[in-house]
């Protein structure tokens, strides 16, 4: 995109917006901008490419850690173990290197978070 764009959003969905390249207002390189339900559009200006994803908000609490999303600490432990074994996550083509190792889990159990969060923008 080059200029100004206002893609429509489904107000019932939550959305994520990720800058792929270039410079667009309101988007930091490498950061996923969260757009809560209730928005019908988002205004972008500048020159660049962005990925917009969206869907119905999760009704349940979730645990997010590194590249994994689960329902509880045990899910994350199982996902990390599968990742470490090289199982269940597919293959990346065109990359000539080893898979990124998952970091060690924290010393305390991971806790789910609810739907309440502080949102800016």
Automatic annotation (TrEMBL):
It comes from the Bacteria. Residues 96-121 are annotated as: Disordered. Transmembrane segments: none annotated. Residues 38-86 form the Pirin C-terminal domain. It holds the Pfam family Pirin_C. InterPro entries: Pirin_C_dom, RmlC_Cupin_sf. This is Pirin C-terminal domain-containing protein. It comes from Nonomuraea longicatena.
């Amino acid at each position: 995109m080059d200029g100004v764009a206002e893609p429509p959003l489904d107000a019932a969905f939550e959305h994520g917006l990720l800058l792929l390249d270039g410079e667009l207002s309101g988007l930091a390189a490498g950061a996923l901008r969260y757009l809560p339900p209730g928005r019908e559009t988002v205004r972008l200006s500048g020159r660049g490419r962005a990925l917009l994803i969206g869907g119905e908000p999760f009704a349940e609490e979730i645990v997010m850690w590194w590249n994994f999303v689960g329902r509880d600490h045990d899910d994350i432990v199982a996902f990390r173990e599968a990742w470490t074994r090289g199982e269940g996550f597919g293959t990346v083509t065109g990359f000539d290197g080893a898979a990124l190792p998952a970091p060690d889990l924290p010393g305390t159990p991971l806790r789910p978070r609810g739907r309440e969060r502080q949102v800016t923008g």
